Amino acid sequence: MNSTELQEEFSYHNFLNNEKWKLNLPTYEKISSELVFDTPKVSVIIANYNNAPYLERMLDSLVNQTIGLEKLQLLFIDDKSTDNSAEIVEKYLQKYSSIEFYQLKENTGGAHGPRNVGILNARGDYLVFLDADDWYDENALQYMSESLENSGDDMGFFGLVQSINGKLTLKSKAYFFDGNKKERDIQELSSAFYEWLGPQGIMVKRSLIEKYNLHFPSQRVGDDVTFFYEAMRFSKKITQGERLTTYLNRDDNNVSLSKTVNRDFMISWLRALSYINQTFPDDISKEKFLARRLEWLVYNFGLRRDVGYKFSLKRIIDFKMNIDRYLGKINFDPAIYFRTGARKIVWKYLLLEDYRGVVRFNRWHSLRHIMKKYLGIMRREENQYFYPVLNSKIPKIAINMRAIAVNRVENHVMIQIYTNGIFNHFEIRNKLQPFDRSKLSTKKVSLTEYRVDIPLEIDIEMYDFWVIYNNYQEQKIERIEKLLSK
Q1: Gap between the Cα atoms of 466 and 374, Å rounded
Q2: 346 Rama class: left (phi>0) / alpha (psi -120 to 50) / beta
Q3: Is the Cβ–Cβ distance between 173 and 204 less than 8 Å?
């Protein structure tokens, strides 16, 4: 694709730094609480479309914030929902202050429209963007805003957990694993930092958004990651906080989640990456950002079979042609940042335009977990461990990490570790409160074995056991619950 064609796409989808995005927003009707405040500290922008089952939990988390409603502006922007969202919000309007309800007269087809309406109407010193099915810890907005006040930074990243059917797990650990940080140069961040960049757990100064005319591009996917990466680039330095602030809803029955990974999804993401690649200079931050998003696309369109774009040789060729079309020649090797060997192998095949090689490898990869279960782990070769293969034409995949509990003596458990990464520590984590976590005392006794001390009085039903490696990656310890229950 030539430069003119790309610029036309960027313009059509409102990526560019001009006023066009403001002119394309739908009109709306506005209803407010009886009492709203002119100079709030934090504006909370909530994009909603048919999230009625989750609204009470989300709104309760806001009206009970320890910062106080007098310091909040709660902008609830409804993208012409067809459920009873309006009735729920209006009940809160009548009972609580600081709520502003914007009902769009046309559906915008994604969260970008409501979020941009929110930006134009925000008055707070700081902005957060909350999905209507997610919710905050009650101390979140006070902690986040005070952290930015104390640091003077324009942008902050804070702790979040993912909730799947009531089970909580840590999400985007690079945001908070290093503890409290301020004035942290974005060029120093690990590649793991760029895995998420959704709205959860992030706060931005309104002055930064206004200065650089930041807004969400008009496409259903990739709009939020584009917005927050641009904000990172302009802020240059960030604050990080180690406390839990945000709950991300990923329940199986959450109909609001976008479950369609199809060709339009692929094109939208490549368009967003192309815009970032052309807008910002080549440096380590952009390398890591592009690499992690490309790795994610390689996984979705090179390895997965359960997405809306049916796996086939045609899909592989189309994927590679559009990588070339939108990104052209990439001036670095993104695979050095990829987390798994399988994704590195697919990327190598794509570079060689060996599309049938991708198909062969994909067929084997779809059976890998079964083969691992019955064939075990291959022997160590040149200081590396590999998954088993039956066909010599299939490249071996190096193992990231496997940790297996093999024996217990009183409060000591022997753990075998197979890894090509860098071991950090063992960790115990409360299943209901995953930020309640601590390191376990450990002694290395051989090349692959560690002796781990487990508190005798621990309730094993309440805790998970993990090995942390490569700083932010983690793996659950296999078979440990069975050993500890004896």
Answers
A1: 24
A2: alpha
A3: no
Say which residues have a Cβ less than 8 Å from residue 222's Cβ, sequence separation at least 6: 268, 269, 271, 272, 273
Vertex 196, ends 10 and 142: CA angle to 5°?
110
Provide the 10 A C-beta neighbour count for residue 347: 21
Q: Is 415 exposed, middle or buried (0-12, 13-18, 19+ CB in 10 A)?
A: buried
Q: What pairing do the DSSP bridges indicate for beta strands 42-48 and 126-131?
A: parallel
Between CA 74 and CA 42 the distance in angstroms is 9
Q: Which helix (H) or strand (E) holds 293?
A: helix 284-298
Say whether pTM exceeds 0.85: yes
| pLDDT of 132 over the 90 cut | yes
Of the two residues 2 and 257, the one the predictor is more confident about is: 2
CA distances from 434 to 102, 118, 138, 465 (A): 35, 32, 16, 11
Report the distance separating Cα 411 and Cα 402, nearest Å: 22
Arithmetic mean of pLDDT, 421-445:
93
Reported as a single tens digit per residue, the pLDDT across 362-390 is: 988 877 666 666 666 666 666 667 776 66
Mean pLDDT of 437-458: 90
Q: Residue 136: is it exposed, middle or buried by C-beta count within 10 angstroms (0-12/13-18/19+)?
A: buried
Alpha-carbon distance of 350 to 320, in angstroms, equals 6
Q: Is 303 helix (H, G, I), strand (E, B) or coil?
A: helix
**Helix, strand, coil fractions of the chain, as percent rounded to 5:** 40, 25, 35
- Decide the pairing of beta strands 401-409 and 412-419: antiparallel
449-453 and 463-469 beta bridge pairing: unpaired
pLDDT given for residue 18 in this prediction: 94
**Across the chain, what does the average pLDDT equal?**
92
| Residues 246 and 137 sit within 8 Å (Cβ to Cβ) | yes
Q: Which helix (H) or strand (E) holds 271?
A: helix 263-279
Nearest Cα neighbor of 25 from 90, 121, 127, 123 is 121
Calculate the alpha carbon distances from 99 to 62, 72, 112, 222, 469 in Å.
Answer: 10, 9, 20, 28, 44
Quick one: which of 338, 370, 374, 345 has its CA closest to 359? 345
321-330 own/partner pairs: CB under 8 Å, 24+ apart: 322/266, 322/267, 322/270, 323/270, 323/294, 323/350, 325/1, 325/270, 326/1, 326/6, 326/270, 326/271, 326/273, 326/274, 327/270, 327/273, 327/274, 327/277, 327/290, 330/290
Cross-strand partners of 403: 417
